[in-house]
Amino acid sequence: MTEIYSIVSGKGGVGKTTIVANLGVALARLGKSTLIVDADIALGNLQLFFRLKETPTTLHDVLGGKAEIHEAIYKSSDGGVHIIPCGSSLQGFLRSDLERLDHSISRLQNYDFILIDSPTGLTKYSLLPLKAAKETLLVVTPDISSTSNALKLKIAAEMMQSKIGGVIINQQRRNGVKSEEIGTTLGIEIFGEIPYDRKVLKAMDAKEPVVTYKPRTPASKALNRLSLKMAVLVDESLRPQQNFLQKWLHQVRTINGGG
Ligand SMILES: Nc1ncnc2c1ncn2[C@@H]1O[C@H](COP(=O)(O)OP(=O)(O)OP(=O)(O)O)[C@@H](O)[C@H]1O
Ligand SMILES: [Mg+2]
Fold first, then answer.
1. Which of 1, 56, 130, 173 falls between 20 and 30 A from 63, CA-CA?
2. 118 lines ligand 1 (CB under 6 A)
3. Is 38 near ligand 1, meaning CB less than 6 Å away?
4. Is the backbone of residue 200 left (phi > 0), alpha (psi -120 to 50) or beta?
5. What's the CA-to-centroid distance between 130 and ligand 2, angstroms?
6. 147-163 residue pLDDT tens
7. Which residues of 196-214 are buried (b: 16+ CB within 10 A; e: fewer)?
8. CA of 247 to the centre of ligand 2 (A)
9. How much is the pTM?
10. Cα(30)–Cα(232) distance, integer angstroms
11. Ligand 1 nearest atom to the CA of residue 194, by list position
12. Confidence at residue 6, expressed as pLDDT on a 0 to 100 scale
């Protein structure tokens, strides 16, 4: 079964594309076959992370009824993650019908994970990718405007019966709104937290996801933890081995009814 996530946000520039690129690479490195899709059909830039040489067929062609979705899939240079780039022409955007996304994605059966990068905000373009996904992850930065925009998007997603899998707090700083406060305000479980990290910007300049550019930097560690959490949800064998003390504590809690 394929886990299909749409990654959305109410406010722009919070890190959706960065998260999709990095989680895609990290999941592939965990051995999960992963496809990332750039559905930001007006301003897509997921491709920039991967130095793809030529991409003659893109999502624009698929959504314009000119190509099959299989024809728009490319491999990253290390072959790990598969990518559907968006296309960059204005004509391509104008010809694209996002209503086709749901059906096109449903034809892809051979992936463990499909992550869909979505346009920002509360528009038809940002809401249609939710229909193609089984779960939605909401990205926010730790500030009031991002959180209040996220709340509007959450309400819209619920109206569309889209399952919200959790909130990812990105670019967290010491003086940012506390993650727990954001989770409580939104009434959504915190799925992950990624610190503000200048290496993310450096990686973008180098046209590379930070998890490969600087694997040990704090943002990379957080992204790798997040990808492991996603992978464990579908594959228990990836759960990190517990040490003796953790096993003992788990047994004591179980005996005491703590689960
Ligand atoms: N954890 C982080 N620490 C520092 N900078 C970050 C972090 N995450 C993302 N950024 C930077 O924030 C900027 C916006 O990121 P990104 O393009 O991924 O956001 P987005 O939500 O996809 O934006 P848009 O709304 O334009 O699609 C980029 O310059 C990126 O490098
Ligand atoms: Mg983006």
1. 1
2. no
3. no
4. alpha
5. 15
6. 999 999 899 888 888 88
7. bbebbeebbeeebbbbbbb
8. 41
9. 0.91
10. 10
11. 1
12. 94
Structure-token pair, residue 167: 């909130």
Give the domain ranges of the chain: 3-255
Residues with CB under 5 A from ligand 2 (ion): 16-17
Ligand 2 centre to CA of 54 (Å) is 21
Token representation of residue 87: 């296309």
Atom 6, ligand 1: which residue's CA is nearest? Answer: 200
Tens digits of residue pLDDT in 53-112: 889 999 999 999 999 999 999 998 887 999 999 999 999 999 999 999 999 999 998 999
Q: Is the CB of 16 under 6 A from ligand 1?
A: yes
Q: How many CB atoms lie within 10 A of CB 134?
A: 14
In whole angstroms, give the CA distance from residue 210 to residue 190: 22
Q: Residue 40: beta bridge partners? A: none
Ligand 1 neighbourhood includes 140 CB (under 6 angstroms): no
Given the candidates 3.40.50.300, 3.10.20.30, 3.40.50.720, 3.30.365.10, the CATH classification of the domain at 3-255 is: 3.40.50.300
- For residue 249, which amino acid is it? L
